[in-house]
Amino acid sequence: xxxxxxxxxxxxxxxxxxxxxxxxxxxxxxxxxxxxxxxxxxxxxxxxxxxxxxxxxxxxxxxxxxxxxxxxxxxxxxxxxxxxxxxxxxxxxxxxxxxxxxxxxxxxxxxxxxxxxxxxxxxxxxxxxxxxxxxxxxxxxxxxxxxxxxxxxxxxxxxxxxxxxxxxxxxxxxxxxxxxxxxxxxxxxxxxxxxxxxxxxxxxxxxxxxxxxxxxxxxxxxxxxxxxxxxxxxxxxxxxxxxx
Length: 244
What we know:
By secondary structure, this protein is an alpha/beta fold. It contains eight helices and seven strands.
């Protein structure tokens, strides 16, 4: 069954990536009454440098943290795809999952990690998901003969208007998040397990949280350079072609 179209869907490689990449923008949209759905693609089970942390326990914890962060940002629906952390692969099954979401919720804007940042050293889940989402937006969502089984379910072709890629090397769009920056910080602080991974020997949780907040603040100030904004988030904004 096709739902009422939403304003935006974000595809996050791991728990916390949407909050870090565009938490201020998401909060701004929801404040304006726009519906945003966030999709967390991997389970985050490998997101710790501590060998004593058990992957299954971490995955459950990170899912709860993601739900708490989404609530802070005003997001009412979070979808978990439970793909293996550091094991994301471009498979027919995952393609269909992403395509089903696009055709069901029919967003105007799709957001995800820029697959080309950083150019040389980057998380493979970031690279693979970013490219996969772009492929599903165009051309697959336009090409019903590539998914006849979904068409039989009533999921017809959909034309996303724009894709926003967060933290790009060469942004062409900057969004003023001055009014929602505090919510971005609060949402990031929900991801306690991620902050704990910043704790070197002898470093307290409070110090690690300060380090994370400084990292976040530096990014918001850097994104605002050249604008009149106090805090900003930057994107590579891609306009999707109107047809195949």
